[in-house]
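INSTRUCTION: Work out how this chain folds

Fields: amino acid sequence; protein backbone structure tokens

Chain under study, with its fold:
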Amino acid sequence: MPRLRTGTSIAAVKGRGFTVLAADTQATLGHLAFRDFDKIQKITADGKVAVASAGLVSDSQVLVKAARDFASREQFQAERPVTAFSTANFLQDALFFSRGEETFLGANFIVVDAKRIFSVYGDGALVESKRFAVDGSGMELAMSFLDSNWKKGMLEAEAIKVAQGAIAAAASRDVYSGKPVKFLVIKEEVLNGKQ
């Protein structure tokens, strides 16, 4: 059976004391598109760590569930806060150790908290970004938009506009990405999500 093309566009943008996570809401399977699919997920119960996923939906869902279980155990047993870094490391291990298996996991993630942004790739690579991160089939278009529009020290409203603009730019040309754009703002103490 031929492999069907899937796609999405996800991004994270660093602002002054917060991070904005944004994603399109279209899930695709070959030539079929499913609307209003949420690709942004809170990992910790307090909402201070979240991920956006690109790739195979089933693999993303299983790994998000596993990351939530990891976060719950860490907070309960170790009594230490879960961060984007610890969550990204957990996902990195899960993806890396699936390589070479018949059930290779096909998912990429952007993992964020208020201070840090990490990209975790399907082969297990982990990269930290100081400004922004993008992934998915529309990533080149989103990255070009962010290269032109990101500024250090952006305030929340401007950072939201830039993150949404990056995903909208991707969705305008990438047939595997679609609107509307959803976003989540993660601050030190408060988590706000809007459409």
Observations:
- The chain has a mean pLDDT of 85.
- The longest strand covers residues 9-15.
